[in-house]
């Protein structure tokens, strides 16, 4: 618990990740999940990249590729990006869209997610969890 009574000053955050499959990763997150393309760049000191985010753009993912390649494979089957989606119909739409692109549902590593969500692996082996509901502290 934060006891200093000061508000954390950040107003946005980005999670950045390298990939050797930039086109496929962008297809997965943009076309499959339905995130919004916020920005892209090419040939920035050897890097190409794209930023994708939620509609308000305060939270986004950046995927980059370097002309020399990436030394970063997915670490484990339990490194997850969890997306909270209140409507089951929307989860089903996303799951079906990703399956049509060649990304079927996979068994979650952690049994906590079974029966509560859908887990799908992206082209690099990183996992995305589509969780029905919202996060609430208890």
Q: What does it look like?
A:
This protein is of the alpha/beta class and 138 residues long. The protein has one domain (13-67, 80-132): 2,3-Dihydroxybiphenyl 1,2-Dioxygenase, domain 1, CATH 3.10.180. The chain is 17% helix and 36% strand. It contains 2 helices and 8 strands. It has helices at residues 22-32, 88-100; strands at 13-18, 36-44, 47-53, 59-66, 80-85, 105-106, 117-121, 127-132. A 4-stranded mixed beta sheet has the order 1-4-3-2, covered by helices on one side. The protein has a 4-stranded mixed beta sheet with strand order 5-8-7-6, covered by helices on one side. A hairpin with a 2-residue loop joins strand 2 (36-44) and strand 3. It is globular. The model has no long low-confidence stretch (mean pLDDT 89).
Topology, pairings included?
Blueprint: E1 13-18, H1 22-32, E2 36-44, E3 47-53, E4 59-66, E5 80-85, H2 88-100, E6 105-106, E7 117-121, E8 127-132
Main attributes of the structure:
globular; 2,3-Dihydroxybiphenyl 1,2-Dioxygenase, domain 1; 138 residues; four-stranded mixed β-sheet; 2 helices; alpha/beta; single chain
Gyration radius (Cα, Å) is 16 Å
Number of DSSP-assigned strands: 8
Average of pLDDT: 89
Helix content: 10-25%
Instruction: Write the H/E string, N to C.
Output: EHEEEEHEEE
Strand numbers in spatial order across the main sheet:
1-4-3-2
Number of domains: 1
CATH-defined topology: 2,3-Dihydroxybiphenyl 1,2-Dioxygenase, domain 1
Query: Span between N and C termini?
Result: 14 Å
């Amino acid at each position: 618990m934060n006891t200093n009574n000061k508000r954390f000053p950040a107003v946005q955050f980005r999670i950045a990740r390298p990939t050797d499959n930039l086109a496929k990763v962008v297809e997965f997150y943009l076309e499959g999940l339905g995130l919004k393309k916020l920005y892209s760049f090419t040939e920035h000191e050897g890097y190409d990249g794209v930023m994708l985010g939620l509609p308000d753009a305060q939270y986004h993912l950046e995927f980059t590729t370097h002309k020399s390649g990436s030394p970063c494979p997915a670490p484990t089957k339990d490194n997850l990006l969890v997306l909270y989606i209140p409507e089951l119909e929307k989860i089903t739409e996303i799951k079906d869209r990703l399956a049509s692109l060649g990304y079927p549902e996979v068994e979650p590593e952690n049994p906590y997610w079974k029966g509560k969500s859908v887990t799908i692996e992206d082209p690099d082996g990183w996992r995305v969890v589509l969780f029905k509901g919202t996060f609430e502290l208890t």
